[in-house]
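Work Package 3 (structural annotation) set out to generate three-dimensional models for the target panel prioritized at the project kickoff. During this period the team completed the workflow that converts sequence records into discrete structure tokens, so that structures can be stored uniformly alongside our sequence database. As a representative example, we reproduce one entry of 204 residues exactly as it appears in the project archive.
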Amino acid sequence: MTTGRVIRRIAAAMTVLAACVPLAACEPAGRAVGDTQDTMPAVAHNEEPRVDVLVGVIGSAHADTASSSDAADTRVIDALDRAGVKAVYVSVADAQRPVGAARQGISDMIDRRAYVIVVAGVDAGGTDADDWSAALGLARGAGIPIALLDPIAAPDDDTLFAASLHVDDDAANAVSLAKTLADIVNDRPHGRDIVVTTASGQYR
């Protein structure tokens, strides 16, 4: 299978059936949005690509330097772009209070009707724990799944995020970021902790 065909299949996997969209407004009891299925759906998802699928990416403020944070965020955006996935990026690197900037970014992605929001570098283990829970809760209330990317400390409430993604471009078991997000968007069975790759040419 050619790389181009694989990329198209990944982009198509980001589709959501129109019949599923009204359900997105509901908060699943005891589960995160995007992590509610225990088995594969009996009816296959539509394989026609949807150009209106949008991924929101809230960047990380937690890196040794702002430039290294920007570089990591750029790899994520580039990986989605190569897979044909439209993404909107919000930087919080220069914010005095990253959780506040992230909350505003999540709110903006809700207004833009993002299908999934990737939030990098969440640190919900300290004094900002309640504020992070409130920020992620905005997306849950809107029926939009959250994927944490390389979190420093995930919230205790695991209904606030569909999965924690850990970037390792050298790992043999890494799955492409785009495919993983497609599984979350389509509410397909997936792990809670997933190793993903942003490397060029990695589309498994």
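Residues 3-30+51-197 form a domain with the Rossmann fold fold (CATH 3.40.50.2300).
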